[in-house]
What we know:
Blueprint: E1 2-8, H1 15-28, E2 33-40, E3 44-46, E4 49-51, H2 53-61, E5 66-72, H3 79-86, H4 92-103, E6 108-112, E7 120-122, E8 125-126, H5 127-134, E9 138-142, H6 149-162, E10 166-174, H7 181-184, H8 186-193, E11 198-203, H9 213-223, H10 226-230
Parallel strand pairs: 1-6, 1-9, 2-5, 2-6, 9-10, 10-11
Antiparallel strand pairs: 3-4, 7-8
Amino acid sequence: xxxxxISGLERQTGKTLVTAGLAATMQSxxxxxxxxxxxxxxxxxxxGFKRSPDLMMIKSIDPNISVQSTYMMSGTxxxxxxxxxxxxxxxxxxxYNEFLASANMSDCSIIEGCNSISTPIAQYLTEIDIVxxxxxxxxxxxxxSKTTIDSVISGLNYVENAKxxxxxxxxxxxxxxxxxxxxxxxxxxxxxxxxxxxxxILPSYEDTKNLxxxxxxxxxxxxxxxxxxxxxKIAKLA
Length: 238
């Protein structure tokens, strides 16, 4: 089974767009694909039911992608705080069991985190503990306009100390012509100051909400090393 956990070092890095692109690409390659978001904060109340805006966005890219979430809270604070406000207790064993149930029904399973890899999800637990529990590879999405080099270096140290299987970084919304020199040379600085592998670089899209699925899929195929992300040779790309 092909599986990966997508997270970030900050909020609003565009990891949902990356998740949607990876899922739609794998679906286009004839791999039945499931996206599991264990925890959703900022859930929307539609018709009396809580809905995940992130999963709705993924379905808008490709309605054939199977999606699932376990905990949906209305608050936009950390999952730990939001669950406390909603009177919900997040249980990592429940997440593990529901992941297995959803993953067994598809060829490819992509898990998207909430907020960041270090966000508190329950007492004494952060998101990286979910990655440890599921025992799947981790990919971090970093955005040069949201994540500073300082945060990347400290975040990578945090991941390394956690001893999870870390595949590398996807740089999202990168502007090679940025007037901000730290953002312009972001990829080079990461290469020089860390051992993290850059798995691909996505451009800065002017309007992500109206981005055509075929453009996103083409960019994933041409700019992202999906074979390294999923840890095997994908025959359909041979």
